[in-house]
């Protein structure tokens, strides 16, 4: 198997991971969570979102979180921004990088940001322009790259079109999200095959949800296509924790196990990630879905098995 | 991606899946479980084990289960046999196929059947001889093909040696088990690369446990190597449900989702498997780990997510 020697993991637990949690999380707990993540060897943490608190009350303390965390120079602390107002708050809070987001499909884009795909571009263009003017790099999330809960399968060419528009604006990387976690390796392969006609592998990150248990299989397919950047969330946080297709982002610790066991370096300590996942699990008071956590939790026993 | 068009799934839920469950399951419930499985399109079901009841009390009713199930001609009903006494009981119960089992590693073989690998061969040879004389086909399970809980990593050449011995005895197929669910695609690829020097893909089945979430990734790697037979258990039954590394066999419904979505035919109805998984979950009174069941259980909801 032809695989990259090194992979960068972008931890999205504090933002994409927590945004739909119903348990109110204190600012001090978020700060502690991020500080612990900062000690694991990660060099990129998406820590919050500067959306209007009306939309995501859980992240209303975005500016306070940024102010209170212990920042390390080796780490890029990023935040989502939906519009100019959010960007201004993010810049004021001295975030390192901002991320804009939209969907490849009309249905999800409409549901998520109440605009058509075409209407979204000028809004993001203004945000990206101002972010670049303020000296920030910009990441672009494209959601529903495999399928949309409203529109069905997404055509790879539609993802290419959206990515082209975002790169024209001046973003440095797109993260391709299988938002509802339906993707399988053949679909990921087809998507990347199309994407890599227009973009380099290093311009792309993959963002898998493990709703149907296919996330790690999709990671391996992406690796075989030369992709070296992956988003994940400790504990498998994220997604719609209370909804159909509950599983969230691929768990950072499960991804680390896979990569390390395949001889791929990440610079991140599995043990530290596991402990941080147990910490946030305790705060949330619900059992997180990652496989590595299940192993850590259980006691030794002996069984007859094939 | 080069993939086979059709795959055979061998359902091991009633045997490998239930053998370590602490909840006592009534014979009538096992019979109902198997009868429901028989209606899903499966053509192979491993239904019980003729080991001494002292070792696996849960399967002490092996003969009764075989007598009471509604058998379909299109389905091979198989059972494990550890020795001549077990084989005789299995033949008397008119099983269609028997399976013998041993480990590739000394440590697990010793722990599981209290013999060295070398000491195991003559015992199995006698069983296989008598089974073939009685007109039964014989399947051979090789456990710990990736790693052993006692001896660490298993050398692919050791798996080849054990498989050669089993095929010399006259078995028709080996099932290669990643018993403790530690395998990753590079290791599966290396194992199959070695195995396929000596054997044809159609002589091999893969038996993955999903302890670390890598089972489906390992399936995809196996498919790319031409493997067309996989063992799985509805609901992800099996493994050591109460032990470290809890997750059991790869769940049949998760495997079906992957295969069908990749355009690979199985002849099995996902819906029927899901319903049967819910049935046995109800009998066991514990939540099974499969992703498809989590989706079936949850209600629709809406979330902000990437």
Automatic annotation (TrEMBL), chains A, B:
* Protein's name according to its UniProt entry: Hydroxymethylglutaryl-CoA lyase
Q: Which organism is it from?
A: Ureibacillus yapensis
- Record-linked CDD domains: DRE_TIM_HMGL
> Which segments cross the bilayer?
none
Family classification: Belongs to the HMG-CoA lyase family.
A GO molecular-function descriptor: hydroxymethylglutaryl-CoA lyase activity
Q: Which Pfam families match?
A: HMGL-like
Limits of the Pyruvate carboxyltransferase domain:
7-274
